[in-house]
Amino acid sequence: MSASVLSTEEYGVLRITIDRQARMNAIDLATMTELCDLVTAAATTPSVRVIVLTGAGAAFCTGADLAAASAAGGNEASPEVVMDRANDLIRAIVDSPLPVIAQVNGPAAGVGTSIALAADLIYAAEDAYLLLPFTSIGLMPDGGATAVVAASMGRARAAEFALLGARLPATEAATAGLITRAIPSEELGAHVETVAAKLAAGPRRALQLTKAALNAATLAGLDAALAREKTGQSELLTSADFLEGMTAMLTRRAPRFDGAVHPITDPA
């Protein structure tokens, strides 16, 4: 276990915490790999009966650590390797025979949103928000978000969320059916503990089959979505628009994408 990921097990509950607080829990390739390995190993650990995913400090996970990738000169890994690792993590969460709870203690953005939404139960602090900021930097949503978001809140609202890249407050996400419930921040930890304890004391096989049946009914297109996202994102990660979007983000200015003819304004 590295300094970027904390893992504790107690009374059948495996709590996995992303701890990169200096980066608002933005994750690099090594962190994604460790998260995937922990979730995968839990599936065959008899003492573990439920998984809780959360973030340390003020954020849940603010996506891929683009600053670290930029500092590495873009040589951390090929786009295909990065996408494969992200897809492996999402599949590990969805395919786990164990119930997975996302405790969204703060902002979830980019692949952080995808990680949260891959969980079976998603409880968020009322002052948290979800964000798919991909198009603002010349990318497309990944981590299965194009399938999960549409399956949860419908095509029209999913399109607004993904295409415009605006923050979605946790309370609105709950109303839209994207997350399970928004909880007052001071009550979030206790609520998740109560739910996790109930699941840990439940019938393991019945919970496994119930989860599998729900996912089969609602996420039948997940594999195809992951494949489309990998193909599209691998292309976009090498594009001029992404270079411009990332440069603009890191230098805190508005991006100027190729061919754009209108100034950027927020929709009413």
From TrEMBL:
Gene3D superfamilies: 2-enoyl-CoA Hydratase, Chain A, domain 1, Lyase 2-enoyl-coa Hydratase, Chain A, domain 2. GO terms for molecular function: catalytic activity. CDD domains: crotonase-like. Pfam families: ECH_1. InterPro entries: ClpP/crotonase-like_dom_sf, Enoyl-CoA_hydra/iso, Enoyl-CoA_hydra_C. Belongs to the enoyl-CoA hydratase/isomerase family. This is Enoyl-CoA hydratase/carnithine racemase. It comes from Nocardia ignorata.
